[in-house]
């Protein structure tokens, strides 16, 4: 765990100049030992809310799901969320591993926007004014107009608070607007969160 986190930390720092504070355990696989090690390394694990908020986009390259199926699954998750308890936030799992997963993310963003979901980063959803270890660092910003959203870096720190709870990987209630996390390429390294 330590070696993987330190290598990742080094790569992210060399690419962005920041040391991340939040991380998503691969496959959502976490136990108390992993939580302890991550805490000692200065990390806070954040996991997606549940299976309904796993877009399954990782199945696109292997042709186990089609883009239309991923979009339909996401749309159903958003509709179910909107019809039930819109005061509680959520995190949604997406990947930026391939052209296919990035492409589908660019289609999911406008779908979320059409359902009145807005973007924020994980630090904002956690009401964290210092979302990076050792300071605020640059924050990725998203341009979400039209059919081709994009992400760009910014060196100005950004922090806002929202007031609705979501659970993190520790199982604790956290302050987070209607939260939808989108990792990596769509939002540079910082990730995006629909709130």
Automatic annotation (TrEMBL):
Segments forming domain NodB homology: 1-120
Biological process, per Gene Ontology: carbohydrate metabolic process; fungal-type cell wall biogenesis
SUPFAM superfamilies registered for this protein in UniProt: Glycoside hydrolase/deacetylase
Superkingdom assignment: Eukaryota
This protein's record includes keyword Hydrolase: yes
GO-annotated cellular components: membrane
GO molecular function, one term: chitin deacetylase activity
Region: Disordered, residue numbers: 130-171
Name recorded for this polypeptide: Chitin deacetylase
Organism: Mortierella alpina
Name of the gene this protein is made from: CDA2_5
């Amino acid at each position: 765990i330590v070696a993987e986190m330190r290598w990742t930390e080094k790569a992210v720092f060399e690419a962005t100049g920041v040391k991340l504070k939040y991380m998503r355990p691969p496959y959502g696989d976490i136990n108390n030992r992993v939580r302890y090690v991550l805490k000692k390394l200065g990390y806070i694990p954040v996991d997606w809310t549940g299976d309904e908020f796993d877009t399954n986009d990782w199945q696109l390259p292997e042709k186990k799901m089609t883009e239309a199926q991923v979009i339909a699954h996401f749309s159903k998750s958003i509709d179910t969320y909107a019809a039930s308890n819109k005061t509680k936030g959520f995190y949604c799992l997406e990947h930026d591993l391939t052209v296919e997963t990035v492409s589908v993310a660019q289609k999911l963003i406008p779908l979320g926007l059409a359902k009145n979901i807005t973007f924020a980063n994980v630090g904002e959803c956690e009401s964290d004014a210092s979302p990076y270890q050792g300071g605020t660092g640059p924050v990725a910003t998203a341009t979400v107009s039209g059919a081709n959203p994009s992400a760009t870096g910014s060196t100005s720190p950004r922090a806002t608070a929202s007031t609705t709870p979501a659970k993190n990987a520790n199982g604790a209630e956290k302050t987070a607007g209607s939260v939808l996390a989108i990792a990596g390429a769509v939002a540079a390294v910082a990730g995006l969160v629909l709130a």
